[in-house]
Every structure is written in C-alpha cells, then in structure tokens.
Design goal:
With 727 residues, the chain is an alpha+beta fold. Helices cover 18% and strands 31% of the residues. The strands form 7 sheets. Strands 6, 7, 8, 9, 11, 12, 14, 15, 19 and 20 form a 10-stranded antiparallel β-sheet that branches. Helix 9 links the parallel strand 28 (541-543) and strand 29. Helix 6 (451-466) packs parallel to helix 7, helix 9 packs parallel to helix 10 and helix 10 runs parallel beside helix 11. The two termini are 38 Å apart.
C-alpha cells in the first residue's frame, strides 16, 4: 500500500514500513525503513545540526544546520556537499562532476513497474503497486525517476532508477546505483556471501566500521567470489530474533554493494552496477535504466527474511515452464564420461536411468564441432557426427523410446580460436587491437553487445533445438571477461561494453523464453559463478556449484539459502571418491543432500551395483513424494555447518505446518560423542505429529522446545530423514 500526503511517501507492506519525504528545499530525504508503523511523518526523527566542514546549500542561506552531508538521503548525489557514498555521479558538458537532484513530482500506479531489457519482479495490480518519484538537476536538467514496487504480502520493496538527459548537451554517467538506503545508526553488522570456484556463498559477518566496506565483482559476471546479495542486521540478530535487512541486486554482471559508516555514526548502503570500467554517455533525450534492487526487512530474524525472499522469487520472479508441476529428475553425463562418449554410451546411461524413475537424460559438453577437449570447438554449434552418427535427430528418438526426455549443454557466449566461427569472424570476440588475447579455459568471449553475433548464435542453437524434441538447456559460462573491447563501439564509448554485454545476454535469454516457452533452461557459470536473482528471471534453476561433494554442499546450500529458494539450486548425486575432494560419502547421504535442491544424478548409472540402484530408486521415489514440500515449503536452517562439525540439519515445513521433512548429516566419526537432541522449527505448537509413521505422537511445542532425540549413527557422514505428519 502506498500513502502520499504533502510530499511524504509511505510504503506499507504487511509487516514493514518504508518512508521518504521531499523537504522544503526539494531534497528527497529518507525517514524510515523498519517494522510497520502508521502514516506519521517520521521526518521528526531527523535532527539538523551545525557540523564543521559540512557545507550548506545556497537555499539554506545562513542556516548552518541544514547540510546534505548530515541528512539521510533517498538517492544521494555528488559535488554539492554530501561527502558520503553517492548513488549517482555524472560528468557534465562543462567537465564538472556535479549532480544536484531536487524533487519534481510523484505518481502512484497500480501494478508493478517493468524494466525494458532487464529482469524484474512482476505482479498484477492486485499484488503490487508502483510509486514513481521524479528528481531533477535544475541546471543540467539531468532527471532521475525513482521506481518503487511494493509487494504488500511478501514484504518486498523493489527499486530501480531511470536517468534521463533532458538537457541540451551530452552527459557521461560514471556511477548509477539502483538504490541508496540510509540508516540512522551504524550499529549494524554487514553479512556478505563470498567464496571461490567450487566453494561459493560462504557467509561472512562483521560489524560496520568507520568508512566504506564493500564487496563486488569486476569479472563481467556476478561471480563465485562475491554474491549480489547482502544483509545488514542488528548485532544480536539471529535466525529467529532481531531486525535484519536483505538486499538483492537483479543483475548478472559486475556489481558493487557498499556500506559506509560515517563520522556521526549513521550508515548508508548503495547497491548497483560496478563503477569499474563504467562510463555511459547520455545524449540529449536518452535514458539509462539501472538494474532492479530488491529489499526485505524482517523484524523477526533471518529465517523470516529468507522465507519471504524464497516465496517472492518463486512466485514473482522465476518464469518456470514447469510451474504447478514437478520439474524433471535428470541424469547428466558430465562426471560419468567427460568428453569421452558416443551415442551408444549415452543410450546405455539412459537405459540404466529409466527403471529408476529418472525423467531426463542431459548430454553435456562435447557433442558439437571438433569438441573433444576443452581446448577447442566452441562456437561451432553443429553436431559432431563421429560421436553422434545421424546427429541429434538420430539420438533423441532412442532416448525418448526409453521414456526419457532429452536435454543438452551449451555455452553460447564463448568461442575457441580453432573454430570455423572464429576463422570467419575474429572481430566477434573481445580482443583489443594490437594485443595478444587473454584466454580462460582456452576460450575467448563473444561480443554479445553486437546484435549480429547474438543472431548468428541464436540461429545455430535454434536449428539444434528444433531438430528434435529438446526440453532442457544447460547454459554455461566458463570464464570471466577480459580484453573487453568491442569493434562495434567507438573508442569514447568503450566504458559501456561491460553493461551492454549483460543486456545482450538478457536479450538472448528472452528470445529463448519467447520462442521456446516449454524449454527449461538451467543457468551455470562453472557452477555458481552467475548465481543471482537476475539470472533466475530467465533460468528458474541454476547449477549451484561445480563441487558435487555432499559435505561441501552442506555449506554451499546453507549460504545460498539466505536469499535463494531450494527450487533454484541445481544439485546432483555424484560418484565417489568425489572428483573435487576425493571424499567418500554414503550414497544415502549424497541423495539426502542433493534432494534439497533441483535433484538429479551426475554419474555413470550403467556401472552402479544392484544395491546402489535399489537405493537410488528409493531416493527418487522419496523425492517425487516430497517434491511439493521441498520446493514450496518454508526452509529452516536448524544448524550452522560452519559452526558445528558434529552434524548439520535443516527442515522443509509446509505452509499449513501440518507436514515437515527434517534432514540431518553427521560429520566425521568420533568416539564417545555426546547425545544429539535436535530442536525443530516452524511447526504448529498446538498440533501433534507422528515421526516416520511412529505410533507415538509428539506435540509441536515439545519438538520445537524440548527437541527430538537423534539416534547414534556409526561411520563418517551418515544421514537420516524425519518425516513429520500432523494427526
């Protein structure tokens, strides 16, 4: 709900309130974001004061109490006396870098705004409303339209900015944030989700310190190293208690999330496109639209915030061709065969998969061009008929005859120098003139800023998809950007290439969504290198990590779950010893871990023993039985795998609280361990539950406060599940 009165703009969700106000000088001030309050004008909380070295705008006259350097800003500017993090920086025609934004008008619209060429949460008029606040620099006529999407039920507030040059001379944007959020106190902890390839999204928590703390990516993708989701919270906040704020950027390129604790112990968070190598020229009449930022405030701790993000992402962001029905349970041949496969080998794996209840075979890297290793072949999307005689048209019917759907791996954004594509169009790859290229995984990056490049790749892939009934694409991206220079863009605008690349990627993905509405696309970037809310708009599931080790995955899933729902996490059972770690874990454990995600297998099923096949058949039956509970239920982190090596536990609880699935995995075996009593969460305290069909029923209050005794388990990395059903 949006309430507007005398230039006070109050955004109410079910549990929270967000407010800003245009003051008497036209400065848009941020007054409040927190637990729900009334429609009061909360600007009474702002206390102007005369502070040394904090200058005063001309309109203030002799009033030294009024300074932009001390006031909470809604979209901070530059060059006019606010020395904290700016939301926007522009170089004007006269060379100055001054942006002085003042309020012009407001507009309330039913429904949720959309962003041209960019991902965004969506809703109809009954679910969300939009507020648009227009600010302008009166000298240059640079205009900023601030968009606010308010989802009342899910406590979600989305923000974006559209920056328009209404002046008569070009303006160069040097920084353009999606949102700025000021807090009255810097007594906050910043939580980021960091890591590396094969160990992504590990939570890192630290109190704000004086100055700027930031994370981001300059790799051209959101990256394995830092995720475009951060949290700010009270120092004592935990899973179940305390005030916290989650902030996600719907963007798959370089980003920056920066928090500043200033001299007077207030704080500011900015979120947006990385300013690294960013310079965007706005000719008169042109506009630049920032990616969307999404915020959820939870007065009740981290779990409540996660649940609201999960529901909003599932219902109002992902465009899932399997909406309302179960996605396919698949087997991928990569870790089974790497590049060494042919049609008969794939059919052999499919024959082993069919009796186990598996729905789909996915053929991974190596099916096209001269692709027999990762040293060549990318860019030529024609079938390698030495491996696959007769092409996809011959292979797919053999898979379909076994009752399985068929999917393929692609890496459309890349090219190898031995390919026919590169021989014909070397300028289609990023490569600066006169410089030797920097290779990643022996490949170069195609210039997706160019429409003719995207058109060529799209036509080639469409031909492959339409040659047979392909139901799934795994879309990979296996290197970071470098040598970023486009032959199609003039030298003075090369600072636009990083962002234009992401826009080109989104354009390509949108074409697939439009032309193949029943096609499921799984995102991937060496696993989790592009796991962000922007990609989820196009690919409702993403390969969570190239690390398939079940014990490492406990940590990866834990960190990922703070923002992203279980349904988005591609997660497979792989062979042991594990390729990444060499660790041996029981098949039951690997299945229970992978089941908390978009489930599948990544091994050679044709080589499994009968006992292993029996276990897999039970796993697959359980996954299908619990699918709705796992993918639509609320996810509870019962333990922290970074804090307690003895065991890790989590739970899925149905919306009506009448059913729950609790999973637990132990650590390395040790002698004489203490007994484990697990306290559950999310149940209805007034109901009674039977555990795994037991005769005895336990009250929800007892299970949550007294706990449930976990029987001792012998051996390393054991696992168990508890299925709770209310009487």
């Amino acid at each position: 709900m949006i309430h507007v009165e005398q230039n006070v703009f109050t955004l109410h969700t079910r549990r929270t309130t967000y407010q800003c106000k245009a003051d008497g000088h036209g400065v848009l001030l941020h007054t409040y974001y927190g637990p729900r309050v009334g429609d009061d004008d909360l600007s009474y909380l702002i206390r102007p004061a005369d502070r040394g070295f904090s200058p005063n705008p001309s309109e203030a006259g002799r009033d030294r109490n009024y300074s932009l350097d001390t006031l909470p800003q809604e979209y901070s500017t530059c060059g006019v006396g606010d020395y904290r993090l700016p939301a926007v920086v522009a170089e004007n025609a006269d060379g100055s870098q001054i942006v002085d934004l003042r309020f012009v008008r407001s507009e309330v619209r039913p429904g949720k705004y959309a962003l041209e060429g960019l991902p965004a949460f969506y809703a109809d008029a009954a679910e969300a409303d939009t507020l648009v606040l227009t600010l302008q620099d009166r000298t240059t006529r640079l205009t900023v339209e601030l968009y606010y999407g308010v989802f009342e039920e899910s406590d979600l507030i989305c923000r974006a900015a559209r920056i328009v040059n209404h002046g008569s001379a070009p303006v160069r944007l040097l920084r353009a944030c999606s949102a700025c959020l000021d807090f009255p106190s810097d007594a906050l902890d910043l939580i980021t989700f960091d890591g590396r390839h094969t160990m992504e999204r590990e939570p890192s928590r630290a109190p704000l310190r004086p100055g700027v703390q930031s994370v981001g990516s300059i790799r051209g993708a959101s990256s394995h190293q830092h995720n475009p989701f951060v949290m700010l919270c009270e120092p004592g906040a935990s899973e179940d208690y305390g005030l916290c704020y989650g902030a996600a950027l719907l963007y798959s390129g370089g980003f920056e999330a920066a928090a500043e604790a200033d001299q007077f112990h207030s704080a500011r968070l900015t979120l947006g496109v990385s300013p690294y190598h960013f310079c965007w020229t706005l000719e008169p009449g042109e506009a630049f639209t920032t990616p969307e930022a999404a915020f959820i405030c939870s007065p009740d701790g981290f779990a409540a915030m996660s649940h609201r993000f999960h529901r909003a992402i599932r219902r109002n962001l992902c465009r899932d061709p399997y909406s309302g029905r179960r996605r396919p349970l698949l087997v991928n041949n990569w870790e089974a065969t790497l590049f060494d496969f042919n049609a008969d080998k794939l059919v052999e794996i499919a024959q082993a998969a069919a009796p186990l209840g598996i729905d789909m075979l996915v053929m991974d890297d190596g099916w096209f061009g001269k692709r027999c290793s990762d040293f060549g072949g990318l860019g030529d999307w024609t079938v390698n008929e030495e491996k696959l005689p007769g092409g996809l048209e011959a292979l797919a019917p053999r898979i379909h005859a076994l009752g399985l759907d068929f999917g393929i791996w692609i890496e459309p954004e890349m090219v190898c120098e031995d390919s026919e594509l590169y021989a014909q169009h070397p300028d289609w790859a990023f490569r600066a003139p006169g410089r030797a290229p920097t290779r990643g995984r022996s490949q170069l990056v195609l210039d997706f800023t160019r429409e003719e490049v995207r058109d060529h790749i799209y036509r080639a892939l469409c031909k492959a998809i339409r040659s047979t009934d392909i139901r799934y694409l795994k879309w990979d991206f296996n290197r970071s950007l470098s040598d970023v220079w486009s032959a199609a863009i003039p030298p003075e605008r090369q600072g636009e290439v990083y962002h234009r690349y992401v826009l080109g990627l989104y354009d390509m993905l949108e074409r697939f969504h439009r032309d193949f509405p029943d096609l499921l696309i799984e995102g991937c970037s060496g696993g989790g290198g592009r796991f962000d809310a922007g990609m989820l708009y196009y690919t409702p599931q993403i390969w969570c990590s190239d690390n398939t080790d079940a014990i490492d995955r406990l940590r990866i899933h834990y960190g990922t779950s703070f923002c992203y729902p279980v349904s988005s996490m591609g997660s497979h059972v792989s062979a042991v010893p594990n390729d990444q770690t060499g660790r041996v874990t029981p098949l039951e454990t690997r299945g229970i871990v992978a089941m908390s995600g978009a489930f599948g297998y990544e091994l050679d099923l044709s080589r499994c023993t009968e006992d292993e096949r029996a276990i897999m058949a039970r796993q697959n039956a359980d996954y299908q039985r619990y699918y709705g509970l796992i993918h639509e239920g609320d996810y509870y982190r019962l333990t922290d795998p970074f804090a307690d090596p003895q065991y890790t536990a989590w739970a899925h609880v149905s919306a009506d609280k009448r059913e729950a699935l609790v999973s637990l995995v132990t650590g390395a075996a040790r002698s004489a361990l203490p007994f484990v009593t697990l306290r559950l969460k999310g149940l209805d305290g007034s109901l009674h539950y039977r555990v795994n069909g037991s005769q005895q029923a336990y009250s929800g209050s007892a299970l949550m406060h007294a706990g449930y005794p976990i029987p001792p388990m012998r051996g390393d990395y054991q696992a168990m599940q508890l299925h709770l059903v209310a009487e």
